[in-house]
């Protein structure tokens, strides 16, 4: 028998059964998106690095494969759809078009696998609503995400709470990221940071620091109603929020994270057109 | 719940912390067997090389564990670090060969931390990854410098090396995987509370 072909770390072909499985899952997503009024767009597999330089932090930038193309420009293989869609879309949006409901699918390539045995080549499907900053859009996207996988559990929060506190003292970033109080956190913030770390914080606790985010989370939680799929975790905080500006959520199924999403109301502005936006991306390789 | 215990330098202290916290941990007789996984009191205790604890926890193969900040940083582990321990503290330092030559080559067990430190300083130097007795590289002039943990400074003194810079203050931490934290909040809260309590009591 001939030896099995070898491939670079993190990539592999899908043969007949795996391809059939992938296409089944894909079809389920595409049907759900179409039923909810989303139109598909296709984005290029490589793009210039320069237009994204200001919004990607250096850690994230290092996750993409970059090289110099024949014209001497620095280009990267697609590692994140969201900013690419914003750049592609922003100049062509007419006022009457909004809100837009769009979805996209394809591979992204990351230099470092983020999970054990995770692929470097990941197949993702994502959707977003552009030009709608309402609570209704937030709730619509949360609900749509919950309908795409069996027995989902969705954790949500608002990144602006943490960024408001970090703006007051950078020490808060480390404390929240590690979930441990540090001596550098100023006295005025110790109570709220302590509660966010221990998970005791309620919306009332954060309201004095981030009133808009607190009101918004209340509205979202009311609209979602009694539903144990969704849970507000005010302690679900990363040290850095990237381009996210408000609602942020993760979708878990069978104890594994399969999707993430959130609101990025300033992203389109960076490409020349103000438009609020909210979206999510599923990594299909992780699904059954 | 599966908890990863680092073999080596931190093993005894790590087990003592969980014992103080009221957990049924594997005892000496257990550890004399060559097994690496023990079921005690509903918890699976796994024994792995200290540098592998962040890897197990990061990828969800273990739910929690005890790891030094050196290994957490080297593996760019994003797990939460809710408890910092008072024992096993040391410093990650830049150490020069006798006569303090210019910084051209650095031997280390921590290539990633070293690279970041050099980049941060804007220094162009070659990093030589080694797996042990790193100071010897400077003594034998394999490299101009080494980056390593310094506890008492005895190794450095004996070999007439020069401490040049503190790169990081290192302490062991309880680390908890992000997915476990999200999916089992009650178990996590209890674990953190009990470990914190044990640390506070033993401090007195």
Search tags:
heterodimer, A: 288 residues, alpha+beta, BirA Bifunctional Protein, domain 2, 2 domains, three-stranded antiparallel beta sheet, 9 helices, globular, B: 204 residues, D-Maltodextrin-Binding Protein, domain 2, six-stranded mixed beta sheet, five-stranded mixed beta sheet, 11 strands
Describe the model.
The complex is a heterodimer of chains A (about 290) and B (about 200). With about 290 residues, chain A is an alpha+beta fold. Chain A has 2 domains: about 15-135 and about 265-288, Bira Bifunctional Protein, Domain 2 (BirA Bifunctional Protein, domain 2), CATH 3.30.930; about 150-265, BirA Bifunctional Protein, domain 2 (2-Layer Sandwich), CATH 3.30.930. Chain A contains 9 helices and 11 strands. In chain A, strand 9 (about 245-255) and strand 10 form a beta hairpin. Chain B has 2 domains: about 1-90 and about 170-205, Periplasmic binding protein-like II (D-Maltodextrin-Binding Protein, domain 2), CATH 3.40.190.10; about 90-170, Periplasmic binding protein-like II (D-Maltodextrin-Binding Protein, domain 2). Chain B has helices spanning about 10-20, 30, 55-60, 70-75, 110-120, 135-140, 155-160, 180-185, 185-204; strands at about 1-5, 35-40, 45-50, 65-70, 80-85, 90-95, 105-110, 125-130, 145-150, 160-170, 170-175. In chain B, the strands form 2 sheets. In chain B, strands 2-3-1-4-11-5 form a 6-stranded mixed β-sheet. In chain B, a hairpin with a 2-residue loop joins strand 2 and strand 3. Chain B is elongated, with a radius of gyration of 19 Å. The model of chain B has no long low-confidence stretch (mean pLDDT about 90).
């Amino acid at each position: 028998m001939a030896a099995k072909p070898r491939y670079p770390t993190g990539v592999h072909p899908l043969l007949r059964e795996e391809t059939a499985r992938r296409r089944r899952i894909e079809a389920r997503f595409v049907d759900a998106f179409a039923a909810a009024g989303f139109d598909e767009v296709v984005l290029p597999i490589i793009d210039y690095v320069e237009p994204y330089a200001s919004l990607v932090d250096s850690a994230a930038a290092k996750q993409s494969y970059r090289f110099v193309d024949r014209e001497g420009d620095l280009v990267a293989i697609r590692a994140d759809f969201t900013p690419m869609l914003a750049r592609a879309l922003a100049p062509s949006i007419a006022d009457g078009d909004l809100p837009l409901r769009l979805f996209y699918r394809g591979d992204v390539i990351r230099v470092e696998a983020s999970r054990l045995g995770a692929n470097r080549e990941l197949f993702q499907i994502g959707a977003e609503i552009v030009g709608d900053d309402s609570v209704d859009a937030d709730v619509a996207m949360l609900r749509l995400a919950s309908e795409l996988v069996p027995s989902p559990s969705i954790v949500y929060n608002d990144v602006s709470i943490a960024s408001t506190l970090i703006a007051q003292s950078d020490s808060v970033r480390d404390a929240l990221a590690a979930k441990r109080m540090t001596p550098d956190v100023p006295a005025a913030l110790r109570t709220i940071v302590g509660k966010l770390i221990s998970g005791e914080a309620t919306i009332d606790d954060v309201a004095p620091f981030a009133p808009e985010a607190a009101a918004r989370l209340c509205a979202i939680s009311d609209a979602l109603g009694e539903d144990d799929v969704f849970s507000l975790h005010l302690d679900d905080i990363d040290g850095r929020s990237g381009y996210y500006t408000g609602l942020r959520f993760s979708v878990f199924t069978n104890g594994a994270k399969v999707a993430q999403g959130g609101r990025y109301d300033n992203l389109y502005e960076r490409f020349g057109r103000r438009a609020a936006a909210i979206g999510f991306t599923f990594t299909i390789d992780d699904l059954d | 719940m599966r908890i990863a215990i680092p073999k080596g330098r931190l093993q005894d202290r790590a087990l003592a912390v969980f014992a103080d916290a009221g957990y049924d941990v594997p005892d000496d007789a257990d550890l004399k067997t060559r097994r690496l996984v023990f079921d005690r009191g509903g918890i699976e205790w796994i024994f792995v090389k200290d540098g592998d604890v962040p890897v197990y926890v990061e990828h969800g193969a273990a739910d929690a564990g005890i790891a030094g900040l050196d290994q957490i940083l080297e593996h760019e582990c994003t797990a939460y670090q809710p408890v910092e321990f008072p024992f096993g503290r040391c410093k990650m330092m830049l150490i020069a060969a006798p006569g303090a030559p210019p910084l051209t080559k650095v031997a280390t067990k921590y290539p990633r931390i070293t690279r970041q430190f050099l980049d941060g300083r804007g220094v162009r130097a070659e990093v030589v990854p080694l797996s042990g007795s790193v100071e010897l590289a400077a003594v034998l002039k394999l490299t101009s410098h080494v980056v390593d943990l310094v506890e008492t400074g005895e190794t450095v003194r004996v070999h007439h090396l020069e401490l040049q810079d503190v790169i990081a203050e290192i302490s062991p931490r309880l680390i908890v995987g992000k997915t476990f934290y999200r999916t089992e909040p009650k178990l996590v809260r209890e674990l953190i509370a009990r470990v914190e309590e044990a640390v506070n009591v033993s401090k007195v």
